[in-house]
Amino acid sequence: MNKLSVLKGLAGALSLSLLAGLAPVQAQNADSAMIDQYAQGLGSSNISQVTSISELSDVDPNSWAFQALKSLVERYGCIEGYPSKVFLGNKATTRYEFAAGLNACLDRVNELIAAATADKVTRDDLATLQRLQEEFAAELATLRGRVDALEAKVKELESQQFSTTTKLDGSVVMAVQGSGANSGSTYFAPSPGVGATPFTGFGAAFGDRFGVETPVLGSAANTSFVARTSLNLRTSFTGQDELLIRLRGVSGQDAGNVFRGVSSGLGTLFYAAGPFGGAYDDSATAAPATNGIASVNFDKIRYTTPIFGESFRIFAGPRIDLFEFFDTNSFANNEEVDFSSGFHINNPLTTFIFAGPGGGFDWELSPAFSLRGVYIAKQGGGAFSGNAGGLTGSGTIAAGETEFRAGTAKLKLQYSTFSETVPNGGIPAGLGGGTVLGNNMFGNITSSTTIAGGVNAEWAVTPSLGIFGRYGFARSYVLQPSNSAVQYFPGGSTDGISSTTWQAGLSVGNLIVPDSVLGVAVGQPIRISGGQVFVNTASAGFPTGLTGLSPSGTEFNIEAFYKFPLNDRITITPDVQIITQPGNISTNPTITVGTLRAVFTF
Q1: Residue 334 DSSP SS3
Q2: H/E element holding 276?
Q3: DSSP 509
Q4: DSSP H or E segment with residue 510
Q5: d(C-alpha 225, C-alpha 596), whole Å
């Protein structure tokens, strides 16, 4: 074997060794094309050949690398510089630039070999290359083994991966809660009773106006353990859209199961099981277990995508959450990271029906202005010809929102109108019935509609201090026969049944612990503030004559939490709630609720 062929083989081996050390996987066709571009001078139009080291103005003769550069330039002619006659020796090189430069040097070596320039390529050069190969034989073998192992691992992952387009994330919320009222006190839950057959309404807007349930002792609530697990599968088909499928399971009860009707019927822990056969967050319709076992439901399935540009997005699905798109707030909108009470998550009037089949849009007209619209039918999958379901039956909400932004301040103006379902059963024969703001009503009510308005404001005063507030007002109207023994807002009045709600608070970040958050809020859940009913027969189970519908008391909720992170994935949050005149009943005792919450995200 002659000297030239040996040198070619060693030069090839050296180039493969260097590339193997820098590239743990084989170059793809696209990489090879890019290397060819650099090698041909197309990868950068600013590179030019130099023939003398003196042409490079920024190479210091005293530099430790001067002799190496001088040898490569003047002996082999395989160093390139920029047209401005600089080498930029401290500039980071890309893998493509390295491969192109190495290839240029090897091409030059091959030219010298082919030309039999023995004065340029000597036996000493050959011996040096051979010694290098022998000296680093073990390292080269190790690198080849690592590359082979990595290639095998990549193939295994590719064959076993779940999806190339779907990501999985999730969270687990665990909380221990204790609650109670003054020793020896009793709590009366709101209950619109009809005669001797009381039945429970979901909310407490009317307070004790329609009677109360059997009292419970203020010490009746046990300490309970609550848990909620959520798994989110997020798939994108275009890179800008998202199909979200959420699996969720809830177990354990909160204080709202004992002191029913507090916090607008949304509970003291929004992630717990409610008292009326489901979860407060509407993720489960059957009663969640109390032994730690959680039945899993597909509680959210929605698809969102931009159309006509990124500024206009639409969303739709068989199961969406209204409060994901509407009435959002940076400081009070997520029960996992801020306030636990369902009341402080949203405006309970403008988001009264907050989950079900539906869709909407989010249109950002400018950096300072957005429009949103949402329509949800709570039982949108129903096909029965009555008015209890379907996309256009009872139990629907249409909501619109305009958002104004100025610096770190946001203002949202809201409008929503919703209809409620017909009687849920349990109403004595001949008395009809229906629901208004979640309360079962007496009298021949065939349907009810509520028109609500709201304001949602927030301001990040500093990076660590924010303030927020919400206000909601509404009028509810009922449809009933003109000859009904019970008439709401009688005498031709169109005032309807009015109601209000509000909340305000502040958020302080990085207090004592970095990335911690202290939040404090106070508010009034939904309360009837006006409206009248006329009863012309005592058999209705209600005093005859004209009477108002406002309750005797006004509930106020005060909540404070301090969230501090253990790391990027685990947070611990103590939370305290004080509820005065709970259920909008003036004689009810103050309830104190303490919670310790842990949230794990992954």
Answers
A1: coil
A2: none
A3: E
A4: none
A5: 10
The partner residues of 509 in beta bridges, in order of sequence, read 517
SS3 per-residue string spanning 513-528: CCCCEEEEEEEEEEEE
Q: What is the 3-state secondary structure (H, E, C) of 188-251?
A: CCECCCECCECCCCCCCCCCCCCCECCCEECCCCCCEEEEEEEEEEEECCCCCCEEEEEEEEEE
Residue 20 contacts residue 147 (beta carbons within 8 Å) = yes
Q: Is the CB of residue 584 less than 8 Å from the CB of residue 190?
A: yes
Whole-model pTM: value is: 0.73
Is the pLDDT at 194 greater than 60, yes or no? no
Tokens of 136: 């680093």
**Does 158 have pLDDT greater than 80?**
no
Q: What does the CA dihedral 74, 80, 85, 91 come to, rounded to 10 degrees?
A: -120
Torsion from C-alpha of 362, 364, 370, 375, nearest 10 degrees? -10
**Strand partners for 227:** 174, 251
Long-range contacts of 537-542 (CB under 8 A, 24+ apart): 537/485, 539/485, 540/194, 540/431, 540/442, 540/443, 540/485, 540/486, 541/193, 541/194, 541/195, 541/196, 541/428, 541/431, 541/442, 542/210, 542/442, 542/486
pLDDT score of 3 more than 70: no
- Cβ atoms of 339 and 561 within 8 Å: the answer is yes
Res 431: pLDDT: 43
Collapsed DSSP state (helix, strand, coil) of residue 156: helix
- CA 301, CA 357: separation in Å to the nearest integer? 9
Residue 88 — very low, low, confident or very high, per pLDDT cuts 50/70/90?
confident
Question: Could you give the domains of the chain?
Answer: 3-160 (no CATH), 166-601 (2.40.160.10)
Phi, psi of 140 (to 5 degrees): -65, -40
- Cα–Cα distances (Å) from 519 to 180, 467, 510, in that order, read 22, 10, 12
Closest CA relative to residue 555, chosen from 109, 205, 63, 300:
205
CA dihedral (205, 209, 214, 220) in degrees, to 10, reads 40
DSSP state of 274: -
Alpha carbon of 182 to those of 187, 190, 217, 586: distances in Å? 10, 19, 9, 15
Angle between helix axes 29-39 and 95-114 (nearest 10 degrees) is: 60
Q: Which tokens is 488 given? A: 């709401």
Q: Between 160 and 561, name the one with better pLDDT.
A: 561
Question: CB within 8 A of 119, min separation 6: which ones?
Answer: none
Q: Which of 72-86, 133-147, 584-598 has the highest mean pLDDT?
A: 584-598
Contact yes or no for 192/133 (Cβ under 8 A): no
The Cα diameter of the chain in Å comes to: 123
Rounded to an integer, what distance in angstroms lies between the CA atom of residue 7 and that of residue 4? 5
Closest CA to 455 of 506, 404, 484, 413: 413
Chain centroid to CA 332: how far?
13
Q: How many CB atoms lie within 10 A of CB 72?
A: 16
The DSSP result for 38-100, as a single string, is HHTT-S-TT-EE-S-GGG-TT--TTSTTHHHHHHIIIII---EE-TTS---TTSPPPHHHHHH
Alpha-carbon separation of residue 558 from 13, 287, 290, 403, 520 (angstroms): 75, 28, 27, 27, 8
